[in-house]
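Students often ask why inverse folding is considered easier than folding. One informal answer: many sequences map to the same fold, so there is more than one right answer. In these notes we will look at a single instance of the problem. The structure comes first.
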C-alpha cells in the first residue's frame, strides 16, 4: 500500500475530525470522549506548530491517518526543559496494520529531533508505542500530571543521554485539558 505523510493543511481538517471520531468509536481504554474538541483547542493555542501535525494520504490524496504532537515541559524543583508529546494519532480502520501510524510517528520524531527536542512522550495503553521503542517514562523519573495508568505514560529519548538526570513531571498546554483531570 502506498501513502504519503505530510504536514496538515486547512482543507484536511474535516477529514481529520472523521478519523478521530472513527478511531475512538469503540470507547476503548484510550478515550475520554474529548479527542475531537481537544485537537481543535490545541490548534487554537499559542504553542501550536503546524509542522507537528501530520496526515497520511493514499494514492488518491484522501486523508487516511492523522497525528498531532504538541510542546510540553518536564519540570522539577531544580530544572525544566521542553519536550514534545504525541497527543493524538488515528488511522481509518480499513488502513490499520499497514504501517501508516508508524510512519506518521517516525515523521513526527524526525521533526522533533530536527527542532532540537530531547524526547517525545505519549499517553497510550496499547502496544503501539512500545513496538516503536517507547518506554515507561518513570524509567527516567518522569511522571505524568494527568490521571493515567503509570505504564501508559511513555517516552522516547531522541538521542543518547537525552534524559540523563532530567526527571520531573510532564506539563501539557492548558488546551490539552477539557474533561481530563490533572494531579499537579
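Output (designed amino acids):
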Amino acid at each position: 500500500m502506498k501513502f504519503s505523510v505530510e504536514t496538515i493543511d486547512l482543507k484536511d481538517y474535516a477529514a481529520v475530525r472523521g478519523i478521530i471520531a472513527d478511531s475512538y468509536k469503540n470507547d476503548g481504554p484510550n478515550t475520554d470522549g474529548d479527542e475531537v474538541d481537544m485537537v481543535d483547542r490545541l490548534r487554537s493555542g499559542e504553542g501550536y506548530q503546524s509542522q507537528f501535525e501530520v496526515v497520511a494520504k493514499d494514492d488518491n490524496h484522501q486523508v487516511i491517518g492523522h497525528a498531532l504532537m504538541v510542546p510540553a515541559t518536564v519540570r522539577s524543583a531544580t530544572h525544566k526543559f521542553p519536550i514534545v508529546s504525541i497527543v493524538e494519532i488515528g488511522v481509518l480502520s480499513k488502513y490499520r496494520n499497514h504501517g501508516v501510524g508508524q510512519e506518521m510517528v517516525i515523521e513526527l520524531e524526525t521533526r522533533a529531533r530536527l527542532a532540537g527536542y530531547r524526547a517525545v512522550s505519549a499517553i497510550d495503553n496499547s502496544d503501539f508505542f512500545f513496538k516503536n521503542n517507547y518506554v515507561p517514562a518513570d524509567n527516567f523519573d518522569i511522571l505524568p500530571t494527568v490521571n493515567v495508568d503509570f505504564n501508559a505514560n511513555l517516552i522516547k529519548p531522541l538521542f543518547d543521554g537525552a534524559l540523563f538526570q532530567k526527571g520531573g513531571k510532564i506539563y501539557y498546554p492548558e488546551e490539552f485539558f477539557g474533561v481530563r483531570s490533572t494531579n499537579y
